[in-house]
Amino acid sequence: MTYVIDAPKQASVSVAGEEARFPVRRIWCVGRNYAEHTREMGGDPSRDPPIFFSKPSDAVTEEQGLPFPVHTDDLHHEVELVVAIGGEGADVPEERALDLVYGYAVGLDMTRRDLQAIAKKGGQPWDLSKGFDQSCPISPIAPAARNGHPTSGKIELTVNGEVRQSGNLDDLIWSVPQIIAFLSTYVTLRPGDLIMTGTPSGVGPVRAGDIVRAECEGVGSLQVTYVTRD
């Protein structure tokens, strides 16, 4: 295959205990999947169908020092369990959904909240508030074949050592199998897809100089520092 310009570099994430990396195809994000976070964002946590939005594949980053994003004065953290898809399927039954899972990671859905608020008010898309460069810091992926499928466990985020978000995976409104089954009725899930499963309550601002640490019990951890952009 030849192209008229150089092909883009394949986005990828490291895998715990492996030299080979996980190629990233698409990133799907579930909005408002913890009841307390839904309330803090002004929503009703009743069990309506899940809301999905996306980030570009190259939003993933494993860099520990990140430049503070441009065009925002209100950058927010959102810690999430990330599901790495290793199989293919459409209209996947819930009882077979975990067959598609390669592994799990912990990630951050970084959000330019001020831009999101403007978009919401004007009935506009969220893309620039959610899908900007390096908006998805992520830990190495823990293969399910070795670590299993987490259904409970603490998920937590600190900023400069202060706990900001703390929840448990069993608080998810929609479970991982339910998310996979529902999403697969709209799109065919394929190897390389990542699904971010939603964030607990406590989202809040990050400033230049802040150290953000995220951890999901039994899955992994990550730490990033936001620095003033040159």
From TrEMBL:
InterPro entries reported for this sequence: Fumarylacetoacetase-like_C, Fumarylacetoacetase_C_sf
Top-level taxonomic group: Bacteria
UniProt KW Cell division keyword: no
GO MF terms, alphabetically ordered: acetylpyruvate hydrolase activity; metal ion binding
Fumarylacetoacetase-like C-terminal domain mapped to chain residues: 27-225
Pfam families reported in the protein's UniProt record: FAA_hydrolase
Keyword Electron transport appears in the UniProt entry: no
Keywords: Hydrolase, Metal-binding
Record-given protein name: Fumarylacetoacetate (FAA) hydrolase
Organism per entry: Acetobacter nitrogenifigens DSM 23921 = NBRC 105050
